[in-house]
Design brief:
It is built from 8 helices and 10 strands. The protein is 34% helix and 29% strand.
Length: 251
Amino acid sequence: MSLERAGGDQDWWQVTGLAPDEVPEVVVLEGTWWRRDREAQRLRLLDDVRELDAPDWYWGTYRGHPVVYACMYGAARAVEPVVILGQLGAKVVVQIGSCGGIQPGARTGDLLIPDTVAIEEGVSRWYHARTAVSATPALVAAAIEAAELRGIRTLRGLSVTEDTLLGVRPKDDSLERWRGAGYVGVDMETSAVFSAAQYMGMQRLALIHIWDELAIGRRWSDPLPPEVDADRRSTEEAMFEIALHSTLDLA
């Protein structure tokens, strides 16, 4: 795939409203239903915030470092900032959000930082033909250290990304297949974001906290015990700052 097919023939400076000296050092994407809540929570950590000409994309600075944050739900939308900002010179992307825990012991509130993500969504095929895509190892290590310094329990290893929250599965396509493959969690963005980032030559990282525990039949819509809900919310709140501290030179 050429960059022309990826929109490389368009003037993304004009479309986004970015200036060349505003290229973000890190792009942080979040997949969530609760966009307004997450925007308010994340953007209060940034200075000089403004919405770009691309709707729902926000530019700001963190300790002087330029950052773009955007809520992009689902694989198809999540790759757009990666490809566009990658063409403008962004070098790092972090996917944050939630996932379903697949393995027994993957608990609500744990932070999954996958090394490799299996592809079961339909977007990655536009960037390569492989069945899995990996994070940048140095960023994974930095994120684990940053999370554990905050007292957050971390998980790593394999995860999987699929297309939809409400898909109808064939009878032979069960959670047991995922569990047997060793996948720790499932989300709807990460493998596509990694695939696009790899194509654009960008470093990549995912921080996706466990919400539903599929191994015990706990769904994301089920009410949580107060202490579990508090733990989940604490991890969710910390992810953005962990993303920044894992990718920016704040020394």
